[in-house]
C-alpha cells in the first residue's frame, strides 16, 4: 500500500476547536504529516485563521471577518463554543501559525485561501513564510483559481493546489495553466469518478482528498492511490493506516 499523508482538517478538529492553536497542537501531538487551515483577511488587512466569512459560528462574537479589524477579531473567544476547557482560545493570526510551524519540525501546512485574493494580499501569506525560511513546508490551496494564481505570482516557489468539486475533462489542463502541483477533490467525487486519481497522477499531479472521517471511505481512497487524506479524525486515521 502507498501510505497517504494524514492531513488534520482545521487541526485536530474532533478534539479541539477548529482552526485554533489548540487544534494545531493536538494535530501535532497526534503525529500527523500535515495540518490544513483556512485563512481570511481582516478589514485592516491582517491574515487570520478562520473558516467562515463571519465569526458567528466559532467565536463569542458576530459579524463579517472582512468587516472587523484585527483587534476586534482578537478580542473574541474562539474556544468556548466547543467546550469550556478551551475558553480563551483566540482566532490565530498567520504570524502565530508561522511561529507554530517554526517550532514543530517535520510537520507541513496546507493553507487554504478563502475567497478571491489579489497578488498583494497573497504576499501577506507568502512573505512571512519566506522570511522564516518555511516556504518549502507549506502548500497553498484554494477553490478560487484567482487566489491560486495570486499565490504563484507572489512566490512561484510556493507549492500550490486547486480544490475541486467536479472533474471535467479539462481539469489537468486547468491545473497545468495554474502551475499547481496538487489537485484536491471532494471525497464524493472519487466515488463518482474512480479514474480521477489515475488521470491526475498521469498528468503529473498529486492529489489529497477531503474530508473523509470513516474507515470505509479511507479504504476506498487508499485503494484509489491518493497521496493524502484530509480528516477531522487524524489520530484515528493514523492508527487505522498503521493496521492496514
Ligand atoms: O482542504 C479542503 C477542505 O477544507 C475544503 O472545505 O469547507 O472544510 O474548507 P472546507
Ligand atoms: Ca479548508
Automatic annotation (TrEMBL):
InterPro entries: GP_PDE_dom, PLC-like_Pdiesterase_TIM-brl. One of its GO terms (molecular function) is phosphoric diester hydrolase activity. Residues 4-241 form the GP-PDE domain. One of its GO terms (biological process) is lipid metabolic process. It holds the Pfam family GDPD. This is Glycerophosphodiester phosphodiesterase. The lineage of its organism: Bacteria, Bacillati, Actinomycetota, Actinomycetes, Micrococcales.
Amino acid at each position: 500500500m502507498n501510505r497517504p499523508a494524514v492531513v488534520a482538517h482545521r487541526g485536530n478538529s474532533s478534539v479541539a476547536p477548529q482552526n485554533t492553536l489548540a487544534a494545531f497542537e493536538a494535530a501535532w501531538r497526534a503525529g500527523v504529516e500535515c495540518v490544513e487551515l483556512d485563512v481570511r483577511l481582516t478589514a485592516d488587512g491582517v491574515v487570520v485563521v478562520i473558516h467562515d466569512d463571519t465569526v458567528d459560528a466559532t467565536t463569542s462574537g458576530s459579524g463579517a471577518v472582512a468587516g472587523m479589524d484585527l483587534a476586534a477579531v482578537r478580542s473574541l473567544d474562539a474556544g468556548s463554543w466547543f467546550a469550556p476547557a478551551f475558553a480563551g482560545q483566540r482566532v490565530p493570526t498567520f504570524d502565530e501559525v508561522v511561529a507554530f510551524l517554526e517550532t514543530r519540525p517535520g510537520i507541513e501546512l496546507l493553507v487554504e485561501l478563502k475567497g478571491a485574493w489579489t497578488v498583494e494580499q497573497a504576499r501577506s501569506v507568502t512573505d512571512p513564510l519566506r522570511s522564516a525560511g518555511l516556504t518549502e513546508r507549506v502548500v497553498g490551496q484554494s477553490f478560487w483559481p484567482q487566489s491560486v494564481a495570486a499565490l504563484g505570482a507572489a512566490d512561484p516557489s510556493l507549492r500550490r493546489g486547486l480544490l475541486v468539486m467536479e472533474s471535467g475533462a479539462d481539469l489537468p489542463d486547468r491545473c497545468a495553466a495554474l502551475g499547481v502541483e496538487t489537485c484536491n477533490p471532494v471525497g464524493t467525487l472519487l466515488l463518482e469518478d474512480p479514474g480521477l486519481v489515475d488521470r491526475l497522477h498521469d498528468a503529473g499531479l498529486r492529489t489529497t482528498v477531503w474530508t473523509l472521517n470513516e474507515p470505509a471511505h479511507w479504504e476506498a481512497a487508499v485503494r484509489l492511490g491518493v497521496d493524502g487524506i484530509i480528516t477531522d479524525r487524524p489520530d484515528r486515521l493514523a492508527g487505522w493506516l498503521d493496521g492496514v
